[in-house]
Write a structure and sequence with these properties.
- 69% of the residues lie in helices and 0% in strands.
- It contains 14 helices and no strands.
- Helix 2 packs parallel to helix 8.
Length: 393
């Protein structure tokens, strides 16, 4: 049966997760209910903070930085909740561990892809600096060079980044993981799985929005329909409706560049280019000089935003990586695990699971300020793959 508008992804392509996290006979003690309520109320507050006050805030650097900051806080909170539940990893069901490890390595790959795109956009700043320097010198030869640099910048910005494109199947896999594993005879496990569902929903929302911003496409927007019994459901529905609606409006309007600050620079370039096309004479009009100043100011704002967003993505990477480290470390040092299959699961994950992220990091060609970011990614990740007999337990 066809749909009247563009097809959106179905909410439950692989089953209904609420059968696992909200069983009819579920009962939580007052302590567990209080912990869950605290987590969900905090999540609801974060989602409300992320609702833009105006349409033009969507995909501004300030909004994207806030989105990744709030996501980092939620991922930190889930680690705190695990501690407060007094639910040692050795008591986790194997399926919970599989889902956590699989999702976390996918998020590491997504972070690397995002930083790859931010690095690519930063490299374009070099061309804008050349344009400004050439126009400041204001000679026929330099004006010709400025035109050439503008052409190169436009081509660079319009190019596709295959690493971001490769995030599309990752989003599909994260969608599948919304079908949480069944929890039997464990009130603490049910509490954790319900909280993890909230983390996954927020993560999917932020990651799919960022992918749209970087690719100029809305085909991987995930329209989730969450149960109203969740304390954060109303806040999420309001956020999703507003942001997804604005993204689809931007895409349908024919906008190729969705990042606000980048679009502002593109507008300045578009305004400046015809003024230096007519001839090679030195620039003399006040209007043209103002256009050059405007381009310089917009380019500086773009550069600053790229730096700040890269820093936040780096911070989120570290949080996800430390969460994996803590889980795998607990599996390996617990004396009750050493003779169980979980020991071998931990060893296998240390040896193999993160290899796609490492390989991606090692293959990258980096320049300038992104070197330090990706070097930290690579160094931190390498620590997880020492042979077992070289690990300190």
């Amino acid at each position: 049966m066809s749909r009247p508008q563009e097809p959106h992804r179905p909410f439950f392509p692989h089953g209904n997760p609420f059968r696992m996290i909200l069983p009819k006979s579920s009962y939580l003690s007052p302590k567990l209910q209080a912990l869950l309520n605290k987590f969900e109320e905090t999540l609801a507050d974060r989602l409300r903070k992320l609702v833009p006050k105006h349409n033009d805030e969507v995909f501004s650097f300030s909004w994207m930085i806030l989105a990744i900051q709030l996501l980092s806080e939620t991922h930190s909170d889930i680690k705190t909740l695990i501690t407060e539940l007094e639910l040692p990893v050795v008591d986790w069901d194997d399926k919970w561990i599989d889902v956590y490890l699989d999702n976390s390595v996918k998020l590491l790959d997504v972070c690397i892809a995002f930083c790859s795109e931010l690095s690519r956009l930063s490299q374009g700043q070099l061309l804008l600096h050349c344009v400004q320097r050439n126009l400041d010198q204001n000679s026929p030869i330099e004006i010709s060079k400025a035109k050439s640099s503008i052409d190169s910048w436009r081509q660079h910005i319009g190019a596709k980044n295959p690493r971001v494109e490769n995030c599309f199947p990752i989003i599909d896999k994260l969608m599948e993981s919304l079908e949480l594993p069944k929890v039997k005879n464990s009130a603490k496990g049910k509490t954790l799985m319900r909280a993890m569902y909230g983390v996954k929903v927020q993560t999917l929302f932020v990651c799919s929005a960022f992918i749209s911003a970087f690719t100029g496409s809305d085909k991987k927007l995930v329209d989730l329909k969450v149960a109203q019994t969740l304390l954060w459901a109303e806040a999420f529905n309001d956020l999703q409706t507003f942001v997804h609606g604005e993204i689809r409006n931007l895409v349908s309007s024919g906008r190729i560049v969705l990042l606000r600050e980048l679009e502002e620079v593109a507008t300045c370039v578009k305004d400046l280019y015809p003024k230096i096309q007519e001839d090679m004479e030195p620039l003399g009009t006040e209007e043209l000089k103002n256009s050059v100043v405007e381009l310089r100011n917009r380019a500086e704002k773009l550069s600053s935003g790229l730096d700040l967003l890269t820093k936040e993505v780096d911070g989120f990477f570290q949080i996800v990586l430390s969460g994996r480290d803590a889980l795998l470390g607990n599996l390996r040092v617990s004396s009750s695990v050493f003779d169980s299959p979980k020991k071998y699961k931990a060893e296998e994950q240390f040896a193999m699971a993160d290899k796609p992220a490492i390989d991606c990091c090692e293959r990258r060609s980096t320049t300038g300020r992104m070197n330090s970011v990706e070097t930290r990614f690579q160094q931190n990740a390498r620590l997880k793959f020492l042979p077992y007999d070289q690990m300190r337990v």
